[in-house]
Amino acid sequence: MARESLLLKLQQASGAEIVERDNWLLAAHFGDPLEEYRAVHTRVGIFDLCERNFLRFTGADRISFLNGMVPNDVKTLSPGQGLYAAFLDIHGKILADARVFCTDQALLVDLPELCKEQILQHLERHLVADEVEIQDLSADWTMISLQGPAAANLAREAVSISALPDSELAHATGAIGSCNIFLIRVMHAPQDGYDLVLPCSEAIEAVRRLQEIGKKFGLCWVGANAYEMLRIEAGIPRYGVDMNADNLLLETGLEHAVSYTKGCYLGQEIIERIHSRGHVNKQLAGLILGGRVPVERGSAILYAGREVGKITSSVFSPYKDSAIALGYVQREACNPGESVVVRDRTKEITAALAALPIYPATA
User: Fold this and answer.
1) Is the Cβ–Cβ distance between 44 and 220 less than 8 Å?
2) Which of 81, 222, 235, 271 is most buried, judging by how many CB atoms fall within 10 Å of its CB?
3) What pTM did the predictor assign?
4) Cα distance between residue 163 and residue 199, in whole Å
5) pLDDT by residue (tens digit) across 261-307?
6) How far is CA 311 from the centre of its chain?
7) Using only C-alpha atoms, what is the Rg of the chain?
């Protein structure tokens, strides 16, 4: 049975049309996905990220244990800092993408809810004599995001905080009225923004307060349809769609989740071998399609008459005024500007490979 966001009724009051995705009932749009898209680029949009999940790591060995489980260097973090990471199997295949945040007393790991059970089992298998406790916070916390050029001004007015975090994944505690929150600086789109982690017990009231204060900044709810436009333009892969346990981490473009100077971690041998070779056999690429109609996931990518890849995501891009896509392409055909053909069922469409992100970041 699909789960329901705590904020769903609040969103329905704003005109949300509901869709099921990743076993969640989410807002597909609020009447006009293109207006929601424009709000993120020109004002500020609010996203419901209820399908994200937090795990809390405590105990004397929490840093060394987690550092051995992810390819990025957790030991470099000080309280208030964060980094991108991933959980890998011994073959360097990606089990989940993640973000790690350091506080005074714990490490917090944010990952997709659909990966949670597998990752908890994965972690338990490798806990031997480590003094580490792992707590699932999904019943206690939910997440929203403010994205757009007015996100910082809205956050300054709505959140009681000593100073807004000033670097990617930096974080701090604050409050919206009487609701204590965890605020993270992060980009989910070409514009800058902030994720807000809210206690479930007070989330509805806190979001109502944000909506009221946000009126002066043109705050607009953003549904899954507009989010997909922004995500694909930004070249951000989504787990379960653009990547899964069949993909090597370095195929996905998530090089920022890897440190090549840290000590041992699960999957290191494969990652280091690929890195020393200087390339992967295939990699995630952007495509600009000839036409405004998106193609189906799984459509073949052809180069010189031969299949060299598959489409993973496709959407109409207002920025390019055409359909765009993400897909894995063999190394020989990966050069931006290279002309390829996409076979969508019985139809063939000319496309050009594009560097990621398709829409350049402006933060």
Assistant:
1) yes
2) 222
3) 0.95
4) 21
5) 998 999 999 999 999 988 889 999 999 999 999 999 999 999 999 99
6) 19
7) 21
